[in-house]
Write a structure and sequence with these properties.
This protein is α/β, with parallel strands linked by helices. The protein is built from ten helices and six strands; from the N terminus they run βαβαβαβαβαβααααα.
Length: about 210
């Protein structure tokens, strides 16, 4: 099954180029392009994309406003920021709004495709240069939300947020697959989350990765 995607950018030349790059990519289906948030909302009447790949600074409705709105109105659609801006404040603002990814515009095609697939699976993706910002943000966000979870459970959630499978976690933490699955069941109970997809979406709020 292909990943339905909408592209949003106010620079039409870049938007058309991005569309051209992704349209032939196996497993990705660009269902539409928009130059601002209002055009995007019109498209949402006809499409239910898995991901919206959005610029941040645009007229009428910018990427931050889009992300905040989608978190409430279209929670099953994930937002990935694709921006030329790499300042910490921009990344933090999109994270606070609910973005699931942040990729710089000069990234290679392979990185962008990897980000799309990672987020579509329920994970999170931030370009390597943003890892320090991402971890700082997760530490801040979890300071008031980790009281119910053990250190190991938070560690597992951190790996889950990065798209690791139970087997990969077991190998990295030198634990058995059974132990990892037991921890995951406990996390589900503590956080009141039933599905694995919902758990992946919430993971970023509870991680404190070392």
């Amino acid at each position: 099954m292909s990943i339905d995607l909408i592209l949003v950018d106010d620079h039409k030349l870049f938007l058309n180029g991005l569309d051209s790059i992704l349209k032939d990519e196996m497993g990705i289906h660009v269902v539409g392009t928009a130059t601002n948030g209002l055009e995007l909302l019109d498209m949402m009447e006809k499409h239910s994309p898995k991901i919206v790949l959005s610029d941040i600074r645009m007229p009428i409705m910018d990427g931050v406003a889009i992300t905040k709105l989608f978190k409430k109105k279209y929670p099953t659609t994930a937002i990935i920021a694709l921006s030329m801006f790499d300042q910490e404040d921009d990344v933090i603002e999109m994270l606070d709004a609910g973005a699931r990814g942040y990729v710089i515009k000069n990234a290679e095609k392979e990185e962008l495709v990897a980000a799309i697939h990672q987020v579509a699976k329920g994970g999170f993706y931030f370009s390597p240069k943003f890892e320090g910002i991402y971890e700082k943000w997760t530490a801040r966000e979890t300071s008031d939300n980790t009281i119910k979870l053990t250190r190991r459970e938070r560690q597992i959630l951190g790996l889950l947020a990065r798209g690791k499978t139970s087997q990969q976690m077991a190998e990295q933490l030198n634990l058995s697959r059974f132990t990892i699955d037991t921890h995951r069941k406990n996390i589900h109970k503590k956080l009141g989350i039933k599905s694995n997809l919902a758990l992946a979406r919430e993971a970023v709020k509870y991680t404190d990765i070392e």
